[in-house]
Amino acid sequence: MLTSRVPAAVAALLSILRAAPALDGVRIVDGPESTNATERDIVLVGWQPGADAAVSLTQGFNAAGARTRDEEFEIACYAESRRGDKDMAIPRARVFELVGAVEAALRATDAAPTAPTLNGTVLWAHLTTGNLQQVVVEGTVAGLAFTVSCRARI
């Protein structure tokens, strides 16, 4: 019996993002990673700077009889774009392109009809929140912490 859909959903999200044409050349990372100041664009799944959890979840019985449960969870994610100059507009625009590509990858298309269900692992998933961070450290860095919210039945 399944205890949670979280492991399968995170794996499916990673797979979808790694296959997304708009994210070609962007490193998609499972969980936290040490900073690589030479890497321009990166998307991390299951990690945000300062987040309390990689995934937060709640569960409750679906109906009388206690046969199935509903699970809602939020996957913490982070996209970052680095540039070697002082023009913040460039990495800021790029990090929103990265997160836009994530959002588009979660939409159903003829080629990927199960994308919003994370390939059948959840009932639905979508991007719900974001927080922009900007710093100047050996060039400009824009980061966008965002959340992929999911609902599943177990």
Relevant terms:
154 residues; 6-stranded mixed sheet; 20% helix; elongated
Q: Secondary-structure map with pairings?
A:
Blueprint: H1 6-19, E1 27-30, E2 41-45, E3 55-61, E4 69-83, H2 89-105, E5 124-136, E6 140-153
Parallel strand pairs: 1-2
Antiparallel strand pairs: 2-4, 3-4, 4-6, 5-6
Question: In words, what does this structure look like?
Answer:
- There is one protein chain.
- The relative contact order is 0.23.
- The protein is built from 2 helices and 6 strands, in the order αββββαββ.
- It is 20% helix and 38% strand.
- The mean pLDDT is 90.
- The radius of gyration is 17 Å and the shape is elongated.
- Strands 1, 2, 3, 4, 5 and 6 form a 6-stranded mixed β-sheet that branches.
- With 154 residues, the chain is α+β, with helices and mostly antiparallel strands.
- It has helices spanning 6-19, 89-105; strands at 27-30, 41-45, 55-61, 69-83, 124-136, 140-153.
Summarize the structure.
This protein is α+β, with helices and mostly antiparallel strands and 154 residues long. The chain contains 2 helices and 6 strands, in the order H-E-E-E-E-H-E-E. 20% of the residues lie in helices and 38% in strands.
